[in-house]
Design goal:
The structure is a homotrimer of 202-residue chains.
Chain A: H1 4-26, H2 31-53, H3 59-62, H4 65-79, H5 87-90, H6 92-112, H7 117-138, H8 154-169, H9 174-194
């Protein structure tokens, strides 16, 4: 049986992959592009974290079923010619869960490597959000994460990371700190989506 | 005396560098841009592989004559103002040989690092093709590797990697498996070029 | 008390961060974009060097006050709505000092890792100049470093690196070699800016 964490993780990887497929399709790519971009949106953030922190083997090398999963997502979606209208909206929840899970996991991993709290929060944000940044760069777009008029995303990860690091510093048990900060990130993200809360341009 | 492998390798590095020079020139770059881009097209794929697999020192640090070779290629081509019309066509064979050699070497390197077969094939494709992807991104273009209407390239590397991994799994000696899969990649690529075989857009 | 080197280093990090802020603002980014891009322009070159040379922990993980410094620069500049006209010009000197310091430090670090002299010079150039390249790529521009009509920048770093490697090869003490090559890079850069000396397009 899969644990709750594993179930969220799989849902989040599938969601990341589907976002990549949609992004690649908007740019008229072929299957090579679709698979490459969805690989990057699904694994890019965690890969960047692991390379910068020198954690090897990378998680998608260690958990070899994840790349296969992304390949299957790409193969299935390539059979569907038209993107159904409800798809984007239905991805909001698994994406928010993934943002929460991966950001806190990234913060935790950085702390384990001995970084300062502030750097650990940055690594949380990178883990949770930079897959999309890499995908956008490869598709020749300014990353939507960096633009105003997209609902809070990195900000949710940053806030959750701050809560996690503070809680750990206050000797709160890691499981409790994780649960609280993941819930907070998910909640913040869903609120930002619901009321379209964005940062201003600068 | 150079072995066959070394000769192909040198020809492939030169070819990768020349592609970079042509790409950088199309975007009106100066010598700094020409050298940087041709460095990336020549070494980018193998560098990405080594960084992701944590193999150090990188091959162009270990084989220090390769960066010098790329510099010389850039210096010589900078003396030639007009790109001769036959150049692109004459690069097809050494490029196909390099695609075969580097893809299989990348698959082999990943297997040596203990990755799964599927991940090893992906590393083969990265090694053989991502130099051009990085060059295109730096030149602010959507990677031509990801676009329909360019003859099969990553697909050839993927197929050859699949053959290699299967053969190794069947206890075929590594030399035989290498020779067969490299030949297959080269052949597939030349056929794709000859009859302009492409993947469809998605 | 801060040493001269530390003072230059801090001034150069602040300058790199300010360049990132200006770049991100020109592209209408929000605070997430401004901080991310200024992080990349400030630390991108040294990070790329350390990842390629497998030097860990990265310098901005080890010296944890630097990321905080960049965050403060972003927070302060975000309060200033209009970029003052004199800002760009006043950055020329600290930027030139940073180019000198970081390029020579990068060359030195590569030599310490056992690379050849030519590769060490390349690492110097990467350290001194690739922060801006990464920032430009993320902002969907062809790197200004690679374009003609921008005054010599990588060329200064390359020349200084060449002087440094030659001096070390001739048994000149490292402190003397450093001082001479840093001064030469700063001088060359200021001369190139003053008389608008550029490389031609190719």
């Amino acid at each position: 049986m899969l644990s709750l964490t594993e179930t969220i993780e799989i849902a989040a990887v599938v969601t990341g992959a589907v976002y990549g497929v949609l992004l690649a399709r908007r740019h008229g790519m072929d299957f090579v592009g679709v698979f490459s971009v969805s690989f990057m949106t699904a694994f890019g953030g965690g890969t960047l974290r692991d390379v910068l922190l020198d954690r090897h083997p990378l998680f998608w090398i260690r958990f070899e079923h994840y790349p296969v999963l992304v390949f299957i997502v790409c193969a299935i979606t390539s059979l569907i010619r038209r993107t159904p209208g409800w798809l984007h909206k239905s991805l909001n929840l698994p994406d928010a869960l993934g943002l929460g899970l991966f950001s806190v996991a990234g913060t935790q991993a950085a702390l384990d490597c001995g970084t300062s709290g502030f750097v650990a929060i940055i690594f949380g944000v990178i883990t949770g959000t930079f897959g999309g940044v890499i995908g956008d760069i490869v598709c020749n777009e300014i990353p939507s994460l960096f633009r105003p008029h997209t609902p809070l995303y990195a900000t949710c990860a940053f806030t959750g990371g701050l809560v996690y690091v503070t809680a750990i510093g206050l000797q709160v048990p890691a499981e409790v700190a994780s649960a609280v900060s993941i819930s907070m990130i998910v909640l913040l993200r869903l609120i930002a989506l619901k009321w379209n809360i964005c940062l201003p341009g600068m």
